[in-house]
């Protein structure tokens, strides 16, 4: 055993020293990351997970009222953006109360109260977001 340390002791010591430096550097980096690391929304970062991957896209829409026979595009009713600010408005999916997909223009021929379901999937995170809105079609005919 004495001959082993005499022949390879320097190599073993240098490997142990490099390994301890690597482990120490990792823990120092982790400590600094937890203290000063921030993500784009200004919140503290977590070394174990990326908080951006947990966020859903944002749909901007409100319940609205239209006159009978008024031309209303679905694309103009809502907008959406991803966690990094990318526009997802073109990715919005509109559905009626039965779940049938809607596209083009809103049917305002009959007055009444209708419920719409709006859905979007983030291209960055893969997370989904949805909203239900109420649309009132007023019986007064637009001129």
How many strands? 7
Structural class: alpha+beta
How far is it from the N-terminal to the C-terminal residue, by CA? 101 Å
- Rg computed from alpha carbons, rounded to a whole number of angstroms: 29 Å
What form results from the Cα inertia axes?
rod-shaped
Question: Secondary-structure map with pairings?
Answer:
Layout: H1 2-36, E1 58-60, E2 64-68, E3 79-81, E4 93-95, E5 101-102, E6 112-121, E7 128-141
Parallel strand pairs: 2-7
Antiparallel strand pairs: 1-3, 4-5, 4-6, 6-7
Q: What would a concise description of this structure say?
A:
Helix content is 24%, strand content 28%. The protein has 143 residues and is α+β, with helices and mostly antiparallel strands.
Protein architecture, described:
- With 143 residues, the protein is α+β, with helices and mostly antiparallel strands.
- It is built from one helix and seven strands; from the N terminus they run H-E-E-E-E-E-E-E.
- A five-stranded mixed beta sheet has the order 2-7-6-4-5, with no helix packed on it.
- Strand 4 (93-95) and strand 5 form a beta hairpin.
- The N and C termini lie far apart (101 Å).
């Amino acid at each position: 055993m004495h001959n082993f340390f005499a022949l390879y002791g320097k190599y073993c010591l240098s490997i142990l020293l490099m390994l301890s430096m690597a482990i120490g550097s990792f823990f120092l980096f982790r400590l600094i990351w937890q203290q000063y690391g921030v993500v784009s929304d200004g919140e503290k970062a977590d070394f174990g997970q990326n908080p951006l991957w947990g966020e859903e896209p944002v749909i901007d829409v409100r319940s609205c009222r239209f006159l009978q026979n008024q031309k209303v595009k679905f694309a103009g009713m809502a907008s959406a953006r991803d966690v990094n600010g990318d526009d997802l408005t073109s990715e919005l999916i509109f559905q009626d109360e039965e779940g049938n997909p809607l596209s083009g223009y809103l049917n305002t021929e009959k007055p009444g109260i209708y419920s719409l379901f709006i859905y979007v999937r983030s291209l960055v995170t893969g997370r989904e977001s949805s909203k239900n809105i109420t649309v009132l079609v007023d019986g007064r005919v637009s001129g």
